[in-house]
Amino acid sequence: MSASILIPDFVNRKSFIELDARARAQSLFDEGTWKELVGPFDRIESPWLAKQGIAPQFDDGCVVIKGKIGGSPAVTIAFEGAFQGGSVGEVSGAKMTAALDLATKDSKAGKPTAAILLLETGGVRLQEANLGLAAVAEIISSVLALRQHAPVITIVAGTVGCFGGMSLVAGVSSYTIMTREARLGLNGPEVIEQESGIDEFDSSDRALIWAIHGGEQRVGMGLADLLVEDDAGKIAAAVLSCVRKGVPEKHRTEQVELYRARIAALDTSSQIDPATLRQQRANTKGGVR
Amino acid sequence: MNEQVGLRGRAWFKALTGSDAPNSGDPHSVLATTAAVGNEQALFLCVVPDKGSRFPCVRDGQVGLEEAFTLAAHLRAVIAEDHDKSREAKRSIIAIVDVKSQAYGRREETAGIFFAAAASADAYASARMAGHPVISLVAGQAFSGGFLTHGYQANRILAFDDAGIVIHAMHKEAAARITRRSVAELEKLGHDIAPMSYDVQDYAKLGLLFKLLHVDDPQHPTSNEVAEVREAITEAITDARKGKLDLSNRWESDTARTMRKGTLAVRAALEEQWFNG
User: Fold this and answer.
1) Nearest CA among B19, B134, B171, B122 for reference residue A168
2) pTM for the whole thing?
3) What structural domains does chain B harbor?
């Protein structure tokens, strides 16, 4: 693409990243088909934050919208990165688990219902620590139950990214869609620097962070499926394509021997160069569905 | 953390299975073997520290890439072997948990530890959903991504009740730093706010545990104590076989009804709105 084509495209696009969680979720549905469930007017907020002098939010930073995508039933569960870093608390976590379980119930009853997870989250909300961690385990379990019947599609658009326990939720999804502005990993750079020292990870090295956790790298490594521009229309189209593809024949996390062998083949005598590793993965057949 | 992580895990793996040698082809940080419990054979799994690991950031008992995929491989093998068996005949899986955390390393992030952890959690959950009773015995520490990778998908969770047991999202020092509190403040909050507590007695109030067990010195169990723990595991297996294959027992337990009102309110409201309108 030449610059003269790229620039008007960039200016005219409708950014997805600039939307909040609610608007992001709404933008994925067929017009006039959706409604929000357990929204802010239901006022189910965190029972734990006020006790610690932290203002709760009426939706606990999690938006659940049910409707149709390409004419098919779907539910979107979106974490709001701007509230408590998109962290998983008791209520926000329960919303996701409950919505996934209801989609499974409908799917088993002959009405396959895809789930789309918009993950902008640093992981467990430390103010609700053990209930957040338990919620993540429950979300993982509910994703695994649903994905046997209908696709579970994770979108990490940015700019918060998807870290901590919720990165496992992305890992067990049927499809993961990312933008170049998104990051996905278990431990963020600051946490690694704190735990293992600056020699292990210099969290001020932006280039290194993007080379490891960035959307382009994750898709290039075959650990996420689609790299999409920050454009609401293109992201909606990518979601629709995944909904239409349906349940993959084999999920990535089921291919244990393939990925175990790849880890066995790693040279760990020094740090691994992300670009070289991506090149190796790109040259290896298999793994990507 | 005065006690070295992983010593209890190894001690209990050995006490319950009679061995603590890794399988050939496995990293030395994963112990896996089939042994008797009650009147049946079960797969026992444990992650232990390996000072010689080729991944520097797992040497103190963290769960890393090799550990996650090795656990997943053992679990997948048992699921496949028992595929055609009835639910009653499917082998139980016993996860002995004493893990410091997930591995905090650059090699791990580069190679995608999030995905390795997901593959292991998937294998545990798939075993449970296929009808294998999956029982976790928390013998020491169960932190964060380490626990999500190894043990937190169990149907039933058992834990010892002493001060050496810590089940938490993040260790004290880091949690204090991130929530901008002192460790003393964090400890005080834990007394009032059960999910934040580092005390296993408070954890038990959340309704996630099947049972707390007492052992005088968990690093050196007596044969009577081992027999009691075996019995508790057998009881958990029996209970798991009677129960559902999902994790709903965790929010439907009597304890959870008091402590997880938020979870139950969300589930009720969402179900009501999902089917009406």
Assistant:
1) B122
2) 0.97
3) 7-245 (3.90.226.10), 247-277 (no CATH)
